C-alpha cells in the first residue's frame, strides 16, 4: 500500500513541485511525469530513487515519524554505485535519471535524516555525478535534443571574487593546500561570476540559473574531498556560495539551508579564519533581495565590476 500511495503522490504532487520550482516545460516535465516512472518499473534502483524523493517530499509537507525516509534512498545509492561502474546502452539513461533525482534531493535528505555534518558537501558530491555522466552517457545512448537555453551563459560579465575570499586563497608553495590551488581557484572563479552577474543588466533573469549551475560547472571532485576533510579554504569558498541560496526556489528542497550550513562551517573552521567568514555570516540572514545585492557587491572591488576588458562568460 505504501508503494501505491507514493506513486500517486509522485505523479500528482512531487512532479508538480519540481515543475513549479524549476519552471520545467515541454519534454523536461514529460520526462519526470512519464519516462521516469516507466523506466522505474524496469530498473529497481530508479524505482527506489523515485520512492525516496517522494518520501522526502511527503515528509516535508506532512511530517510523520512513521515514514521510512532513509530506506529507499540508501538502497538506491547502493545499487546506483554498482550500476555506474557498469554503464551501458541498456542502463545509461535510467542511471542518469536516478543520479539526478538523488542529487537534487540531497540537502532535503540530510535534513530529514538528521545528518550532523555539512550537508553541502554531500550535495556537491552528488551534483558532480550527473555532470560526469552527461559526457559518458553520450558514448552509450543518444540524448534527446535540448532546446536552446533562454538563459544566456556565454555573454561577458564581471568576474568579481570577494576581496576577503581572495585573501583567504593566497598561499605559499609549502602550504598544505598548494596542490589543490587550481581546484580552489576554479570554484572561487565561479563565485566571482555569481557576484558579477548581480550587476549585469542582461543577467537579471538568469542569476538563479547561474547559481544552480555553479556546482556542475566549477566544482571538482578534489574540491569536494577538501570540503569533506573540513579544510578551511574549501569551506570558506562554500560560505560565499551560501548567500546565493536566496535565489534558489523557495521550496521544500532548500528550507533553511544557508543559515544552518553557515553555522556548521563557522564552527568547523575555527577562530583563525573568522575574518573571511564575517561577511557571508551576515549575508545569509539578509532577506530583502535589493539589500542583499548591495551588501554582496560591497564585498568586491569596484574596478572588477567596471573593467569591461576583464569580463568573461559564465562558461
UniProtKB/TrEMBL annotation:
Specify the species: Phomopsis amygdali
Q: What GO annotations for molecular function exist for this entry? A: DNA-binding transcription activator activity, RNA polymerase II-specific
Q: What is the name listed in the Swiss-Prot or TrEMBL entry for this protein?
A: Uncharacterized protein
Q: Which Pfam families match?
A: Fungal_trans_2
Task: Name the keywords, alphabetized.
Answer: Nucleus
Question: InterPro entries from the xrefs?
Answer: Fun_TF, Sterol_Uptake_Regulator
User: Is Nucleus one of the keywords UniProt gives this record?
Assistant: yes
Amino acid at each position: 500500500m505504501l508503494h501505491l500511495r507514493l506513486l500517486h503522490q509522485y505523479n500528482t504532487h512531487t512532479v508538480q513541485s519540481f515543475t513549479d520550482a524549476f519552471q520545467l516545460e515541454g519534454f523536461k516535465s514529460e520526462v519526470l511525469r512519464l519516462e521516469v516512472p516507466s523506466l522505474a518499473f524496469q530498473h529497481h534502483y530508479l524505482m527506489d530513487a523515485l520512492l525516496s524523493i517522494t518520501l522526502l517530499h511527503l515528509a516535508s509537507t506532512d511530517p510523520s515519524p512513521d515514514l521510512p525516509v532513509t530506506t529507499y534512498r540508501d538502497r538506491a545509492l547502493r545499487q546506483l554505485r554498482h550500476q555506474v561502474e557498469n554503464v551501458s546502452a541498456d542502463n545509461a539513461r535510467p542511471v542518469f535519471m536516478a543520479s539526478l533525482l538523488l542529487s537534487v534531493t540531497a540537502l532535503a535528505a540530510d535534513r530529514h535524516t538528521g545528518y550532523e555534518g555539512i550537508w553541502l558537501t554531500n550535495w556537491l558530491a552528488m551534483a558532480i555525478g550527473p555532470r560526469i555522466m552527461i559526457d559518458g552517457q553520450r558514448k552509450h545512448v543518444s540524448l534527446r535534443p535540448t532546446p536552446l537555453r533562454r538563459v544566456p551563459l556565454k555573454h561577458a560579465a564581471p568576474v568579481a571574487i570577494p576581496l576577503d575570499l581572495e585573501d583567504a586563497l593566497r598561499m605559499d608553495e609549502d602550504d598544505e593546500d598548494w596542490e589543490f590551488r587550481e581546484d580552489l581557484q576554479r570554484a572561487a572563479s565561479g563565485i566571482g561570476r555569481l557576484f558579477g552577474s548581480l550587476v549585469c543588466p542582461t543577467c537579471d533573469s538568469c542569476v538563479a540559473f547561474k547559481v544552480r549551475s555553479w556546482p556542475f560547472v566549477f566544482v571538482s571532485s578534489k574540491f569536494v574531498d577538501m570540503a569533506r576533510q573540513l579544510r578551511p579554504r574549501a569551506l570558506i569558498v562554500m560560505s560565499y556560495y551560501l548567500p546565493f541560496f536566496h535565489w534558489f526556489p523557495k521550496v521544500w528542497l532548500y528550507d533553511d539551508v544557508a543559515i544552518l550550513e553557515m553555522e556548521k562551517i563557522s564552527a568547523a573552521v575555527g577562530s583563525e579564519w573568522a575574518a573571511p567568514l564575517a561577511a557571508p555570516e551576515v549575508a545569509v540572514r539578509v532577506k530583502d533581495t535589493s539589500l542583499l545585492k548591495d551588501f554582496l557587491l560591497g564585498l568586491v572591488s569596484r574596478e572588477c565590476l567596471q573593467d569591461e576588458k576583464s569580463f568573461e562568460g559564465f562558461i
